[in-house]
Amino acid sequence: MVSAQYCARRCRCEGTTMDCSHGGHPGFPPEDLIPSSTETLLMNDNRMITVPLGPRLPNLLELSLEDNWITTLERSPFRLRPNLKVLRLEGNKIIHVVRDAFDGLDKLVKLYLNRNNIETVDAFGGSSATSSLEMLDLQRNKLESITIGTFTGIPLLTELNLSSNNISTIEDGSFSGLKKLRVLYLHSNQIVRLTNETFMGLSSLKRLVLADNKMQNLPDMVFSDSTALEFLDLISNGISQITQTTFSGLFNLTALYLDSNNISTVEDCAFRDLVKLHTLSLSNNTLQDISASTFLGLAPDDRTDSTGLEELHLSRNRLTAVRREDFARLTKLTRLRLSVNEITSEGLEDGSFANLGNLVYFTLRRNLLTNISAATLQGLTALQTLRLGGNEFRGFHAFAFANLPTLRTLSLPGNPYSSNSFHPDVFGNLTALQYLDIARATSLSPRVFRHLPCLQTVQFGNSLTCDCDILDLAKWLNKQLWMLCDMAHRHSQWFAISTIRGGGQFFSATFERKTCR
Questions:
Q1: What is the sign, positive or negative, of the torsion defined by CA atoms of 77, 81, 87, 91?
Q2: HSE of 311 in the Cβ direction (CA atoms, 13 Å)?
Q3: What Pfam families does the annotation carry (predicted)?
């Protein structure tokens, strides 16, 4: 155990850890002031410009030199700490990682070189001294390219982070020797082009992040060597289309993110091999049309071991219609997002969601809907949250939401609703509803709440007009307050708090249930 009495000045010693961070040290403490049993030495945020060869620390397992001013790693500066397993050099000023930088560290497992100014890397090619390395972090540097010899000397690597560099080119086969690589981060670079050999040999890869690059096209079968892939992120590129063979062979993929591209076309059967896909996100693209053929392969099917798609995100596209057959096979969907499209009431066929009996979250916000009926929403027997704000509704008929017996949250803000907008029975059968948002309502009769025994919160907004209906609403709120508070006092249950505030013509109101004290 490290004893505090032998701890160097401006350092703290506890257990087998010696912490000399934030002490203004220009180098390591003298060897006689570092207990021989020290396993972790923290030298973060000091004034070190180079890494001294001494002191000799044979028992050291982890060394952190984070946020110093180190510029070079020449002449094997770590060879007197041969048992190091973790080395942290992030946040320094290193420009070149020379070939002998880590000589002597044949037990090193994790190496952090992120947040430097690294332009070239020579230490991990050929017969690398760090052949035992399993995790390498090079994010937030200034690398511009990856060549076929860059990582040939670290065959045991399982995680590689190259994000937030200036990488524009990757030579074919650059990762081919990384047979055990499971995680590869390449996001926030300048990558323009991929080929069928970019990811050659990555048979163990499970997670690949390529977001925030400049790719406009994906070659056919570009990921065909990565059949173990489970997570693929291609957000914020310039991809314009998805072909039938773009994702061929990805039988184990569970999550695919294609948001914020320029995708206008998804060929029929493009996802047919993705039999284990749970999440598909295509938001913020330029899709104008989808069909049942778009999602072939994503429905539950015992013959192909398909478990069925659970989340589908299609918000911020240019969809105008949803037909009965479009989602009919996606019976395992639990979350569906169709916000910010151009879907009209005429384009939304009755029964379009009739087979989605497992759906719990559904949003159609900011479309061009003028009306909605129970027939539109039939089949959504498990739905808990429905968001319809920002449309062009003219009103809601009786029992418009009657086919949603489990609904807990209903959001309808965005229109200047009057008393005539809501039939007195509009919320009939919503016996589970707890939260109702009708912001921008100008007037409302309290009769609309008579079918809502579980209602806890109503958002009225701040545009209520002082008329006869608002007076009735005020009386109803006050009645709820006293009646439910008395009930809560006697039965230790919930009660209602209501307020109406404002001046002049407009008022705002809230209605909430809270515990009575």
A1: negative
A2: 13
A3: LRR_6 (PF13516), LRR_8 (PF13855)
444, amino acid identity: L
Q: Give the per-residue SS3 of 410-446.
A: EECCCCCCCHHHECCCCCCCCCCCCEEECCCCCCCCH
Backbone angles phi, psi at 448, to 5 degrees: -70, -15
Q: What token pair was written down for 453?
A: 């025994």
Residue 311 one-letter amino acid: E
DSSP H or E stretch at residue 469: helix 468-491
Containing 256, the helix (H) or strand (E) segment is strand 255-257
Of residues 269, 336, 334, the one with CA closest to residue 307: 334
Q: Is this structure's pTM higher than 0.70?
A: yes
| Cα dist from 235 to 155, 404, 487, whole Å | 29, 34, 53
Listed as own residue / partner, the contacts of 295-303 with beta carbons closer than 8 Å and 24 or more positions apart are 295/271, 295/327, 295/329, 295/330, 296/268, 296/269, 296/271, 296/272, 297/269, 297/271, 297/272, 297/273, 298/271, 298/274, 298/329, 298/330, 299/329, 299/330, 299/331, 299/332, 300/331, 300/332, 301/275
Report the chain's mean pLDDT, rounded to a whole number. Answer: 89
Residue 469 in any domain: the answer is: yes
Q: How far apart are CA 317 and CA 342, in angstroms?
A: 8
- 182 found inside a domain: no
Counted domains in the chain: 1
Q: Domain span at residue 348? A: 319-484
Distance CA(294)–CA(304), nearest Å, equals 17
Report if residue 154 sits inside a domain.
no
- Answer whether 211's CB lies under 8 Å from 236's CB: yes
| Integer Cα distance of 288 and 305 in angstroms | 31
Contact 185, 139 (CB under 8 A): yes
Comparing CA positions, the residue from 164, 158, 160, 128 lying closest to residue 144 is 164
**Cis peptide bond upstream of 55, omega within 30:** yes
Is 335 part of any domain?
yes
Per-residue pLDDT of 386-406, as tens digits, reads 999 999 998 898 999 999 999
SS3 199: coil
Residue 392 structure tokens: 């062009």
Contact 336, 307 (CB under 8 A): no
CA 326, CA 352: separation in Å to the nearest integer? Answer: 7
Helix-then-strand count for the chain, H and E: 1, 29
- Distance, in Å, from the CA atom of 469 to the CA atom of 474, rounded to the nearest integer, reads 9
Could you tell me the CA-to-CA distances from 403 to 48, 332, 424 in Å, in that order?
A: 68, 19, 17
Spell 95-123 as b/e; 16+ CB within 10 A means b: ebbbbebbbbbeebbbbbbbbbebeebbb
pLDDT tens digits along 105-139: 999 999 999 999 999 999 999 878 899 999 999 99
HEC readout, 2-54: CCHHHCCCCCEEECCEEECCCCCCCCCCCHHHCCCCCCEEECCCCCCCCCCCC
CATH number, domain of 324, equals 3.80.10.10
